[in-house]
Amino acid sequence: MAKFRFQDLKIWQLAFENANILIILERRKLIRKSQLEKNLEDLDKLCRQITNFIKSLKLN
User: Fold this and answer.
1) pLDDT digits (tens, 9 = 90+) for 20-35
2) Which of 6, 11, 43, 53 is least surrounded, with the fewest CB atoms within 10 Å of its CB?
3) In sequence order, what are the residues at sequence separation of 6 or more whose Cβ sits closer than 8 angstroms to the Cβ of residue 5?
4) Could you tell me how far CA 14 lies from the centroid of its own chain?
5) What's the distance, Cα to Cα, between the start and end of the chain in Å?
6) Whole-angstrom Cα distance, residue 60 to residue 54?
7) Cα(5)–Cα(23) distance, rounded to whole angstroms?
8) What is the pTM of this model?
């Protein structure tokens, strides 16, 4: 089983905060639904890249 570190949790907490802000912006009609979906996809991709980068650093 992989070790879980506080830094990993912090990254995901920041991602969820950003995702919540995006959802609020869309609900208030400040961004379009298509923008919301694209930004959420981009955020997910970036979080995965950051997580994988951190994992790669731990292997060395």
Assistant:
1) 999 999 999 999 999 9
2) 6
3) none
4) 7
5) 18
6) 11
7) 28
8) 0.71
